[in-house]
Amino acid sequence: MLTATPRHAAVLARTVEELPEIRGNQMHDLHTAVLMREHGVSRICTRDAGFRRFPFLTVIDPAA
Fold this sequence. Notes:
The protein is built from 2 helices and 2 strands; from the N terminus they run H-H-E-E. It is of the alpha+beta class. It has one domain. The longest helix has 13 residues.
């Protein structure tokens, strides 16, 4: 489980600045992606293609 660190607000602001088109239902993915970035996690195993919008993540499709 990843939790926010004191750097969370700065990492969130940087990510929103880099990806200003993120809105609505994408905010949940944004929060998860920011927590991952904050903790240096760069790979996610998921069928959710929405995570591909984050250039700092490598998405691994478990069904592929």
